[in-house]
Write a structure and sequence with these properties.
Order of helices and strands: EEEHHHEHHHEHHHHEHEEEHEHEEEH
Shape: elongated
Strand order of the largest sheet: 7-6-5-11-12-13
Distance between the termini: 42 Å
Low-confidence stretches: 52-57
Bound molecules: nicotinamide-adenine-dinucleotide
CATH topology of the largest domain: Rossmann fold
Strand content: 15-25%
Radius of gyration: 29 Å
């Protein structure tokens, strides 16, 4: 269609009875200026070819030019662009437009068409969780071994997670500690050494950032690796203790990790040393358990990340909220149906995307 100004269309949006273009033209200082033009296409369709010279009357010439794309987007506000159909978006502008869509996401009935027009893929379930996190006044996160897999530490249940093909639930026990200390010691020496040089991954860092931003009130973890604290989180309830400290299994006196690794007996009573983890047949540390329960009982959202939820009693915690519950896990778990929202994927993939949605609305 002929336009008097030397401008090109960068966005065309359809609405009932017509369409509107955001156009650009070079400005004198070498950048771009932006303006809108409206096309009453429904009426134009009714015109015969002989009446073509009438068309310019139906296409409003861009009049008011503004010096930035963001101001150009504001010129589209009277057309309620969020309700329009995006017919075309110039490739150079797709990312910019998507930024506007993200920032204004509560005004959309459906963002799918906009995501397609902007050439981005997005998962509505991640947006939902981001909105829940933003709306909740008290969110508790429960983490399991899956969140640390991206740091290079295998979980227990996934293929490859087992040590010497032994089920950890048979060796990480008080029974093994007393009756087969060699295997118990070899297992935990292996686990302590496996942690050497490993660092938290983006999932731990995002949770620590959310805590700092007041978006989550506590992290209850089944992990013994200390990664949440290393990433900077401060309110961390270690439900299964920590592999980073050691005590005597007889007199409970503290000892060093080095003494444990070298199988040195307790300096006080010559008893066998053990890491300060909760074994499968032991009760949880009372403080951590009670703090986690307290925080969850008043929470508006509980988010479980990277846990098969096979281990009792930590797997009871998500149900103790009166609020919403969500889970992020690579695979399905037997508990999936108990959650309001389940997101299947790797924590290190989905959390950064959720974080983008969260940060874009803060
Ligand atoms: P689990 O091994 O039973 O389950 C881990 C879950 O994480 C699995 O369902 C798996 O599908 C999922 N997963 C794997 N990779 C993932 C990823 N990248 N993103 C998201 N999910 C992923 O672990 P659990 O439920 O924590 O229970 C195991 C027990 O073993 C706990 O008591 C824990 O103390 C101990 N453990 C701790 C560590 C650790 O400290 N990092 C590691 C292994 C086991």
């Amino acid at each position: 269609m002929h336009m008097a100004t030397n401008s090109e269309t960068i966005i065309t949006l359809g609405f009932e009875g017509g369409s509107v273009d955001l156009r650009r033209k070079p400005s004198t200082d070498g950048t771009w200026e932006y303006a809108v033009s409206r096309n009453e296409s429904a009426m134009a369709d009714l015109l015969s070819e002989e009446d073509e010279d009438l068309i310019p009357m139906l296409v409003s010439e861009p009049k008011h030019w503004v010096p930035s794309f963001d101001e150009g987007m504001r010129l589209l506000e009277p057309y309620h662009w969020q309700r329009c159909t995006p017919y075309q978006i110039h490739p150079e502008y797709r990312n910019h437009v998507w930024d506007h869509v993200v920032a204004d996401r509560h005004s959309f009935r459906s963002m799918d068409r906009w995501a397609r027009a902007c050439g981005v893929s997005y998962r509505p379930d991640l947006v939902t969780l981001a909105d829940w996190i933003l709306a909740s006044r008290s969110t508790v996160v429960l983490t399991g071994a899956g969140i640390s897999v991206a740091s290079g530490l295998p979980d227990f249940r996934s293929p490859g997670g087992w040590w010497r093909n032994i089920d950890p639930t048979t060796v990480a026990t008080v029974v093994a500690l007393h009756q087969d200390y060699d295997t118990f010691h070899a297992f935990y020496s292996h686990r302590i050494r496996a942690l050497e040089g490993l660092i938290p991954n983006p999932s731990h860092e995002i949770l620590a950032k959310w805590e700092g931003q007041g978006l989550i009130s506590a992290i209850a973890t089944q992990n013994v690796d200390g990664f949440h604290q290393m990433a900077g989180a401060t309110t961390v309830y270690e439900l299964h203790g920590s592999i980073k400290s050691v005590r005597c299994s007889s007199c409970n006196q503290p000892a060093t990790v080095e003494a444990f690794l070298s199988k040195t007996p307790c300096a006080h009573c010559a008893g066998d040393l053990r890491p300060n983890v909760t074994l499968f047949d032991e009760s949880l540390p009372q403080d951590a358990w009670e703090n986690a329960m307290k925080a969850i009982s008043v929470s508006e959202l509980v988010l479980v990340i990277g846990s098969s939820l096979n281990v009792y009693p930590a797997n009871r915690l998500p149900r103790m909220t009166n609020g919403l519950s969500a889970a992020i896990n690579l695979e399905e778990t037997a508990m999936d149906s108990g959650f309001n929202l389940v997101i299947h994927g790797k924590a290190e993939d989905v959390l950064p995307e959720i974080d983008q949605w969260v940060q874009s609305s803060r």
